[in-house]
Amino acid sequence: MSVPESSATSSSETQSSESATRSVGGRGEVRQKALQEELRELVGVVGPGPLVDLLLERSFELGATDVHFDPRPDGLHVRLRVDGILHDVLVLEQQVSPQVISRLKLMAGMDITERRFAQDGHISSSVLRHQRDVRVGSGPTIYGERLVLRLMPDSSNYVELDQLGLEPDQTELVLKGIHAPYGMVLSVGPVGSGKSTTTYSCLSLLNDPGRSLVTIEDPVERRIDGVNQIQVDSKINFGFVEALRGVLRQDPDVMMVGEIRDPETAHIAARAGLTGVRVLSTLHANDTASTIDVFREFGIPPMFIADSVNCIIAQRLLRKVCPNHRETFRPDPATAQVLGLNPEDMADVTLARGIPADSNFHTGYFGRTGVFEVLYIDDAIREAILDEKSGTELGHLARKEGMTTLEQSAIRKVLAGVTSIEEMHRVLTS
Questions:
Q1: pTM to 2 decimals?
Q2: What confidence tens digit (pLDDT) does each residue in 392-428 have?
Q3: Alpha-carbon distances of 72 from 75, 94, 113, rounded to whole Å
Q4: Conformation bin of residue 340: beta by default, left when phi > 0, alpha when psi is -120 to 50
Q5: Closest CA to 130 of 25, 226, 51, 23
Q6: For residue 114, which of 145, 72, 141, 150 has the smallest C-alpha distance?
Q7: DSSP 3-state assignment of 149?
Q8: Where is each Bacterial type II secretion system protein E domain found (predicted)?
Q9: Under a CB-based contact definition with an 8 Å cutoff, are residues 80 and 64 in contact?
Q10: Do domains 29-151 and 161-429 have the same CATH topology?
Q11: Residue 200: Cβ within 10 Å count
Q12: Does residue 377 contact residue 292 with C-beta atoms inside 8 Å?
């Protein structure tokens, strides 16, 4: 790629967009090196309790989604997942590691004497100064016990639908889908692609005192006023299927099903969507058209799929170029070809890439944005589903009708200077 022409930031419009979507909590104020030094100094002078408390507090401030405690031959490696990438912050010596693991398991209500099997635990918000829940999972490795903490989102920090990264025409289609009198709106993508955030944003738009809203989740990620939230529990055989059957007898207007994982859940959700209930849910699928294939594999009849599904939202999360440490450059011919630019347009286009710094964990990126593909089930798509067209054929038809694909959405973000072409390749071609 060509040599950067300047170290100036991109347009003020891009900067304001970046600033508007930055996470609260002072992520930029807590530097990686400062955190590492702070934790190292504490290891030798305090017990595991204060060390764990500080680590959790700093993890929340940084906007981390997960904390990993990985045993290795040289000690316990502590890593934070920030913007989807794991970063090393500390290595605890082997004599300290068991105390830290035991402290976390005790807080999570887990059996501290059991190290042979995987366990699940929960640190409630009442235990922490930050009103946030933490889900804990443990398991054995050849070097000792491993622990992973999933930091639940801040219930008070909602993301509006128009802040997710959707294009204006995509937002219009999603709104059309969720405001239909009945039927399903599905958010699909791999793990960690922001499906739950999108689903909660849709749910908040339907949260009205005149409606009965119920969620069925595993786990309950955000507490929402005015919504009846149900936590499934496999230990007592109370799963999505059992919860769904019970909720459907309780006169719901809107149901959010955390995830459709199996044929029976899919059948019940589809029937609910056909009988006057608005259903929001997530599903693991690569794109919008392949979602229809997943439903077919679940054994849902074409008529049920065509009539119960209103809208499908496929998504990925891309890291945003750091707004404070970035440089701009003009694309070379190979880059221009990937972005679909004509040679005559190259002179008028500038792209952005980040400069590694302490405030962005030396990645050049800060924060994330979504890229989306929205398939609204109109008459033509519905007819194709009834004719049992394949997912590939449905995709061709949707693109012919003007659907913006994930790749096209990502290219727009690259051209706007929001993300980089390297990040687009990392997420969409991996």
A1: 0.86
A2: 999 999 999 999 999 999 999 999 999 999 999 999 9
A3: 5, 9, 20
A4: left
A5: 25
A6: 145
A7: strand
A8: 248-262
A9: yes
A10: no
A11: 22
A12: no
Alpha-carbon torsion 230, 236, 241, 245, what sign? negative
Rounded to the nearest 10°, the torsion over CA 262, 274, 213, 120 is 0
User: What values do phi and psi take at 14, rounded to 5?
Assistant: -65, -40
Give me the sheet containing 228-231, strands edge to edge. 228-231, 213-217, 254-257, 278-283, 183-188, 309-321, 365-376
**Calpha distance 353→322 (Å, rounded):** 8
Second CATH level (architecture) for the domain 29-151: 2-Layer Sandwich (3.30)
Number of C-beta neighbours around residue 151 at 10 A: 23
d(CA 2, CA 203): 45
- Beta bridge partner(s), residue 123: 134
Q: Which two tokens stand for residue 95?
A: 């004599």
Instruction: Cis check for the bond before 219: say yes or no (omega within 30 of 0).
Output: yes
CA-CA distance, 363 to 318, in Å (whole number)?
13
Q: Which amino acid is at 421?
A: I
The answer to whether domain 161-429 has CATH 3.10.20.30 is: no
Residue 370 contacts residue 166 (beta carbons within 8 Å): yes
- Listing DSSP states for 255-276 in one string gives EEES---SHHHHHHHHHHHHTT
Tens of pLDDT, residue by residue over 326-367, are: 999 999 988 999 999 987 778 789 999 999 998 888 899 999
Beta-carbon count within 10 A of 50 CB? 12
Place of tokens 């011919």: 333
Q: Which two tokens stand for residue 132?
A: 């946030």
